Amino acid sequence: MKHSFFLISLIFLALLSVGQTSKDEEEVKKVIISFQEGFNEGSFKNAQDYTTTDWEHINPFGGITRGRDSTLTDVRSVHQTFLKAVTMKIENMTIRFLSPDVALAVVFHKMDSYKTPDGVQHVNEIHTKTYVIVKQKGKWLLTLDQNTIKPLK
After folding, report:
1. What's the rounded Cα separation, in Å, for the pair 58 and 5?
2. pLDDT reported for residue 57
3. Which of 9, 16, 77, 105 registers the highest number of CB atoms within 10 A of its CB?
4. C-alpha dihedral (33, 34, 37, 41), degrees to nearest 10
């Protein structure tokens, strides 16, 4: 009986870990790094390689853009104006797999200084980004990102 319980428990644990390999974690990290590279260079020129067609972006001021084409239009316009030449750098990243095909990443990005159109100077900030990354046809893709600003003290 003890052996049966142990075997059933072992099988259950094995089923929970399906799709959550270190390779999957590395691929999810690559998506986040690709996003950061697109942010830093400003045009998100390779976004079609790491985002879904229905990608949604929630900016730090609460605005939401839906769909890759609309999102790219939105983020590119911001990066051609007040975020031009502004870069971010990953400070910390945690990844959790919600299912074999869905990962949730919380990433702290250290930001360069910038000034928003309302005249507010942003200096020494950490942007907390939440990324939802899904596996479609064997490839990990960004489907939603949300950004919150936290000034450092």
Report:
1. 46
2. 97
3. 105
4. -170
pLDDT at 8 over 50: yes
Q: Is the pLDDT of residue 16 over 60?
A: no
Phi-psi region of 67 (alpha: psi -120 to 50; beta: other; left: phi over 0): left
For 91, residues 6+ apart whose C-beta sits below 8 A from its C-beta are: 108, 109, 110, 126
Burial class (CB in 10 A: 0-12, 13-18, 19+), 126: middle
Task: Name the band, by pLDDT with cuts 50, 70 and 90, for residue 7.
Answer: very low
| Cα 104-34-149 angle, rounded to 5 deg | 60
The amino acid at residue 12 is F
Residue 26 CA from chain centroid, whole number? 13
Residue 19: closest CA among 115, 134, 106: 134
